[in-house]
Amino acid sequence: MHLQIILGSIREGRRSGPVAQWAFEQATALASKHAGLTVELIDLKTWALPLFGLAKFPSEGDYEDPLQQRWAATVARADAYLFVAPEYNHGYTAALKNALDYLYAEWNRKPASFVSFGNAEGARGIQQWRLVCVELEMAPLPTAVHLLDVTKKIVDGVFTGDPKEEKRFGVMLDELTWWAKALATARAATLEA
């Protein structure tokens, strides 16, 4: 199973960078509990995806744009996704919405969960994420990690979650890997049929 942790904020001085690194370290440390789990951190800032303006709907497939093709190949590698981003104005980030909108089939029939923070500990942003994930035929999980007082927990550029957050992360990762295995089995059975 391959988990992609997608860092969905591109702002200068972003707090989500240290949070995503913490999530990556937590997942990597817990990977031995989940036989065969590999973890990859993807930073949307390094992708610099322009605002989606291509004429062809991603749901049609057959991507013609080279950047879109590279993004599709990257996303297709994953069996599960963990999105990390703050809540902005009762929603999630425009950069993440744009990255999701670039593709279609690569997201399908794979589980997703969330790590968020900000107003209401990111709960409202996560609710909107889930709606978009459903439209992309993903399986958004109810288990997520809502972080409190992120600014206070970043010291010298390093975020440290408290024991409750670390425990919640472990529960979320258990759920995410269970669903990743179940859906990978189902996808494989569909291909064989």
User: What's the CATH first level?
Assistant: Alpha Beta
User: Which structural class do the helices and strands define?
Assistant: alpha/beta
Unreliable sequence segments = none
Q: Report the CATH architecture.
A: 3-Layer(aba) Sandwich
Oligomer: single chain
C-alpha Rg (nearest Å):
16 Å
Work out the number of β strands: 8
Q: What fraction of the residues are assigned to beta strands by DSSP? A: 15-25%
Helix content: 40-55%
Walk me through the structure.
The chain has one domain: Flavodoxin domain (Rossmann fold, 3-Layer(aba) Sandwich). Strand 3, helix 4 and strand 4 form a beta-alpha-beta unit. The strands form two sheets. Strands 1, 2, 3, 4, 5 and 6 form a six-stranded parallel beta sheet that branches. A two-stranded antiparallel ribbon has the order 7-8. Helices cover 42% and strands 18% of the residues. It has 193 residues and is of the alpha/beta class. Helix 1 packs across helix 6.
Secondary-structure topology with pairs:
Blueprint: E1 2-7, H1 16-30, E2 38-43, H2 44-47, H3 66-76, E3 80-86, H4 94-101, E4 111-117, H5 123-135, E5 139-140, E6 145-147, E7 154-155, E8 158-159, H6 163-192
Parallel strand pairs: 1-2, 1-3, 3-4, 4-5, 4-6
Antiparallel strand pairs: 7-8
Helix pairs in contact: 1-6
